[in-house]
Specification:
By secondary structure, this protein is an alpha/beta fold. It is built from 8 helices and 5 strands, in the order αβαββαβαβαααα. It folds into 2 domains: 127 residues, Rossmann fold; 70 residues, Helicase, Ruva Protein, domain 3.
Length: 222
């Protein structure tokens, strides 16, 4: 059986929760008349930062612009060619040395000069990342938003939406069991839904709590 690939992360399948204003500005930053093209996101692991960065880059490419989604580990100025107008950079706190921080400083200035856009993320506000002051200042010049993690109800909505994308309704008892017995980290939960979909198709069995128990890591069921 051909396995279903992971669902692309888009603005459409992001459960907004309390992040409506942030999502609005990310979409607006892709428009030619955008007022603010530099946005910094911060929040706890699993809050949705990486999803939004991927969605931003994917939408930019769909609009015909050259857009890059990069990680901070090993970041180098050469990764961003002069014709690139959109950059999404994850985990800014991982810019561990002066060379990487200088590279992002220069990329930031280059994008601003040519009317490009930068969306960066980190685990804390720019001034709390331990970066060089001039880079932290640059990251804080534009819009700065905390990405608010979803409530349990919103996570269940996200799980149901992911199941619907694969063509089946997520039974309430399955969603409830998953929320009670697994990590509350949303990427982990969505990964379980993906695995449940594949396992159900492989075994030709319906989506039930017993089927879920067979694929949940044993540590998640304790």
């Amino acid at each position: 059986m051909e396995l279903i690939p992971p669902t692309p992360r888009t603005f459409e399948n992001f459960v907004v929760g309390r992040n409506g204003e942030l999502v609005h500005h990310l979409r607006a930053a892709l428009e030619p008349s955008a007022g603010e093209r530099f946005i910094y996101l911060w929040g706890s692991p699993g809050s949705g930062k990486s999803h939004l960065l991927e969605a931003f880059a994917a939408r930019g490419r769909a609009l015909g612009q050259r857009a890059l989604r990069l990680g901070a580990v090993g970041f180098d100025e050469a990764q961003v060619p002069d014709d690139c107008r959109l950059v999404a950079l994850d985990d800014a706190e991982a810019l561990a040395d002066d060379a990487a921080q200088t590279a992002l400083f220069n990329v930031y200035n280059g994008l601003r000069e040519r009317g490009g856009a930068l969306v960066a993320s980190g685990g804390a506000a720019p001034g709390q990342l331990g970066l060089r002051p001039e880079l932290a200042t640059r990251l804080g010049w534009g819009l700065v938003y905390q990405v608010h993690a979803l409530s349990d109800e919103e996570k269940m909505e996200a799980l149901g939406r992911r199941a619907h994308e694969h063509g089946w309704p997520l039974p309430h008892e399955v969603a409830g069991y998953l929320m009670r017995h697994a990590s509350r980290d949303l990427p982990f939960l969505l990964g379980i839904v993906e695995a449940l979909d594949r396992y159900s198709r492989e075994t030709k069995r319906p989506i039930t709590v017993p089927l879920l128990r067979e694929i949940l890591p044993s540590t998640a069921q304790e």
